Amino acid sequence: MVTKRWMTMAVLGALALLLAACSDGLGEHDTSLAEFDVARSAVVSASGEYLVVHDGALDTGALEVIAAAGGEIVRGIPQIGVTAVRASDPGFADAAASIDNVSHVGPDLMLSLDLPEAQLVAADISVEGIEDNDLYVAFQWDIRRVGGNADTWAVQKGAGVTVAVLDTGVFATHPDIEPNYAYGKDFTDITIELPPGWIMWDQGGTQDYNGHGTHVAGAIAATIDTGRIIGVAPEASVANYKVMVAVLTDTGVATGIGYQSWIVDGIVTAADDGVHVINMSLGGWRAMNEPDGAAAYVSYLRATQYARWQGALVVASSGNAGLDLTKIRPEFHVPSGTPAAMSINATGPDDSLTFYSNYGVSDTRVVGPGGDISEPPFSYCLSAYSPLNAWVPGAGWVFSIGTSMAAPKVAGVAALVYAQNPGIRPQQVAALLQSTADPLDDRGFTAEFGPGMVDAYEALTR
């Protein structure tokens, strides 16, 4: 049986913990704009790559004008009027901005995975008495906290609904995921130029060479029947949209990076494919008052709105800088900061906002469990992982924390709602998730929690 083979492979006596550290300590959420470094390390500058946002259609004439300005179109997204362009002439941006139907031009920057500062720690966990779903029983407090339990699954398990995971890929043959794996699409290019000292770990295709995407997929839809963990929607289908590649940085840190155009294209394609939910446990910062940021923000804005028009709910992690997002305008965390996305903050086992989670009245929609460092490993979020990762090659399950872990819990609950209510629109799903959330503050809606913790059982039975 495939499950037993993976039990041996995992070697739980040396499970990896992605342990977050924060120099400011727990519970501090008062970073001011003056302390906010606009040149964040999560952004890797690209060379000669641009996002061009058009006001009109991407007809032959518009594309010919871009070419005449010195640009080579490498990716067209006509549904939202966006092109990704490569140009060696440093004057291209100014030339393109002067074109009649072009509203914004900016660099097609890369994003790296937006995670709390992490390190690896070994865990001494007994492998005696292993049974199916044993890790769910022992460690998945986060899944249970949002209503991932027998009572909820007696009502709905999510069959017939597809959740798109836009991430580093998904390890399709993982025993917890394989029965629910629908398909994979690759939007990446492993031949991209990396910063000096960085190494391309990824080998291309839809496979996950990082582990992050597999972790997210497991939290959403790990099956009850064949593995060791359970996802919130254990019969929903997972669609793998690989928009980031696995790399090793010059300091030896394993992460995922992707051009913004890859991510935007993934959103639009997933929407056209008819998925019900789009989960993005990724993000970066963009300033609307700067050309470098405006093109990216508008591209995400159009893409997430397009997804909503097509019937897909967009769920995105709010980010891990511990910031009040309302206070850093005109900076936005994207794609979570776009109006059509549900921005998800992270809580720990005690339902308090985690030290790393962003928040803010303007962005917060609901919260989900993301884990904290109060009681390792029990306060972390356990999920599936790709054994092809560079952190702990061969590991099939790891613990991790972050808003990346909070978002898929909400995506899973949304999948259950779609399955329970055929024909429901994304705006209605979002409203239902908010109106049935478990309040975490007696003041009502707050910047930290919104209306509260997403609640699967309440959302299905209200």
Query: In the CATH hierarchy, what is the class of the largest domain?
Result: Alpha Beta
Taking strands numbered 1, 2, ... along the chain, how are they ordered across the largest sheet?
Answer: 10-12-9-15-17-19-20
The CATH architecture assignment of the largest domain turns out to be 3-Layer(aba) Sandwich
CATH superfamily of the largest domain: Peptidase S8/S53 domain
- What spatial form do the alpha-carbon principal axes imply? globular
- Mean pLDDT metric: 87
Describe, in short, the structure shown:
The chain is α/β, with parallel strands linked by helices and about 450 residues long.
Question: Which SSEs are present, and which pair or pack?
Answer:
Elements: H1 2-10, E1 15-20, E2 43-44, E3 49-54, H2 60-68, E4 72-77, E5 82-86, H3 92-97, E6 102-107, E7 110-112, E8 118-123, H4 134-139, H5 141-145, H6 150-155, E9 162-167, E10 181-186, E11 199-200, H7 212-221, E12 237-242, E13 245-248, E14 254-259, H8 260-272, E15 277-280, E16 284-287, H9 291-309, E17 313-317, E18 331-334, E19 341-347, E20 364-369, E21 381-384, E22 397-400, H10 403-420, H11 426-435, H12 456-461
Parallel strand pairs: 1-22, 9-12, 9-15, 10-12, 15-17, 17-19, 19-20
Antiparallel strand pairs: 1-8, 2-7, 3-5, 3-6, 4-5, 7-14, 11-13, 13-14, 16-18, 21-22
Helix pairs in contact: 7-10, 8-9
